[in-house]
């Protein structure tokens, strides 16, 4: 059970020191057993009370400095001397006056370690899960009755450690590290091998996080400096993703639309211009975002208004598009008819790409953006146009090799789903709505028509004219003013596909192989960039999970009367740790908000380092010196305990 913190010394105390200020005044008048697992924090400053402290090597340096310093985020964090990157550590300085023989002496092992380890009662039981740090004993404040392992007792009245009224202070020596590895300079046999990483297995870095400087770097920072922005993905990318997510979740309350169409519900219209085109065989089409009640995913539902199904095979020809998997084609997931809108309509459910525009909208092509209104700045660049050519070619290759033809290939039906990322949309619709009339046309002819349409799409985007096919020669002249012969030749080659029965998309792909390589290289660069952005988020995901655990176990109303979490409880220090991480104050009691401190603490907690920190209760009555290793163990065990009690997930 928990150590009794309150004791009869209390009434002898005149005043309490504030948490972070006024220590100097308080130290002479008060030494109120503030230490449970450490030593009196005022002892080094001449505390007037007896300190029955059996010194051990472990307290040299690190505990002294811990206890001397105020609890402030500005305090330098403890770095084990043997991990010190610059090598300028106290251990080296101290050894200057020691005889060379001493270097080969056996490392100092405090007696307490030996006795403790032999008597240790492992808290781990057979049910210890994999995540547990089996070599660490959980930090549990001891009862007053238990004999202290090492008398680090700070008792103002009595230096005997057996008195009931005293707070026994047992220091957990499991976390003590005997010291750094032997000095590699002295061992000539190893030939300097100690300077190199000999252990190929994963090792934690000194700072217990993985914020390696990959990706772009701000040049006016020193190598060890990071800005908060370095820890997260760039703002513009985050904003873009957030907008897309918000668009996906958008709903339309009180809409007049049907509540559901088959298994799709929450319909939101996506087309903003209420014009009807003849591109789908004269049928009017509407596009809605909808959520599937089958899997919760979002889809784009294209409704072909007033379509009457006369042949079941027509639907089947639309279903064939489900097998076309290409990064440059909007994937069709379902084709069906439904009367939800009060008429007979055809519905094509496709993948939903939030906030996408059509190529015509994106490049201002159409009746409203005819050539004279388009200025030179809006002129699409040649690399962008080549990128479109490569993507459309790759889409057509996938479609044609499935024995299908796109048929709908127009700037008003190609979606721009990202920067320079396009996808063919509306494919498969004509296969259904013109099933009877088109069943006679050979697919090879439709595929060659695709090549012609392909040429017109490129010409249209390049020249800014919607109906580029109406006067091909004149528009081509215009096109030649902006683009090099290689691109002009590609357009002409495609446009003449109807006259040459041999032309296929495969031949075209071979012709543009140089551009394919360029596009592939650019895609790899984009991939690298995104990967480096992703690597920044990796640490954040880890820390968020850790924070989720911390927040789940702290301040639970169910634990309100749980003694383990009370001031006298064995989990009390976890509460104090939360304060230490998130509720720091400075000497004037002003909040210190330092994300660097929070991230550092959480990383060390996650790693379970041996560094010890001082945790002081809000009323300044209790003080713990505890290592991150013990904290980690405590957090994990409290969380597992919580999981055991929790209701099964729905
Ligand atoms: N799969 C999809 N994912 C996300 N948005 C889409 C999808 N398909 C279409 N849209 C959106 O719906 C809008 C309308 O698409 P549509 O294909 O009907 O083009 P349109 O320009 O409205 O043509 P028209 O008015 O001639 O029918 C597009 O601008 C696009 O923003």
Automatic annotation (TrEMBL):
Localization, per the record, is:
Cytoplasm
Q: Which residues form a coiled coil?
A: 514-552
Q: Where is the C3H1-type domain?
A: 25-54
Q: Where is this region: Disordered?
A: 57-82
What's in the keyword line of the UniProt record?
ATP-binding, Coiled coil, Cytoplasm, Metal-binding, mRNA processing, Nucleotide-binding, Zinc, Zinc-finger
Amino acid composition bias (Polar residues), ranges on this chain:
58-82
> Where's it mainly located?
cytoplasm
| Binding-site residues for ATP, renumbered to this chain | 302, 351-358
Give start-end positions of each zinc finger (C3H1-type).
Answer: 25-54
Q: From which residue to which does the signal peptide run?
A: none
- According to the entry, every stretch annotated as the Protein kinase domain falls at 273-650
Against SUPFAM superfamilies, the record matches this protein to:
Protein kinase-like (PK-like) (SSF56112)
Task: Give the UniProt record's GO annotations in the biological process aspect.
Answer: mRNA processing; nuclear-transcribed mRNA poly(A) tail shortening
**Key word Lyase present in the record?**
no
User: Got a GO cellular component term for this one?
Assistant: P-body
Citing just one GO molecular function, the answer is: poly(A) binding
Q: Where is this region: Knob domain?
A: 553-650
Quote the Gene3D superfamilies the UniProt record gives.
Answer: 1.10.287.3700, 1.20.5.5160, 6.10.250.3160, Transferase(Phosphotransferase) domain 1
Q: Which family does it belong to?
A: Belongs to the protein kinase superfamily. PAN3 family.
**Purpose:** Regulatory subunit of the poly(A)-nuclease (PAN) deadenylation complex, one of two cytoplasmic mRNA deadenylases involved in mRNA turnover. PAN specifically shortens poly(A) tails of RNA and the activity is stimulated by poly(A)-binding protein PAB1. PAN deadenylation is followed by rapid degradation of the shortened mRNA tails by the CCR4-NOT complex. Deadenylated mRNAs are then degraded by two alternative mechanisms, namely exosome-mediated 3'-5' exonucleolytic degradation, or deadenlyation-dependent mRNA decaping and subsequent 5'-3' exonucleolytic degradation by XRN1.
Q: What is said about its interaction partners and assembly?
A: Homodimer. Forms a heterotrimer with a catalytic subunit PAN2 to form the poly(A)-nuclease (PAN) deadenylation complex. Interacts (via PAM-2 motif) with poly(A)-binding protein PAB1 (via PABC domain), conferring substrate specificity of the enzyme complex.
Domain comment in the entry: The pseudokinase domain, the coiled-coil (CC), and C-terminal knob domain (CK) form a structural unit (PKC) that forms an extensive high-affinity interaction surface for PAN2.
Name the UniProt record assigns to this protein: PAN2-PAN3 deadenylation complex subunit PAN3
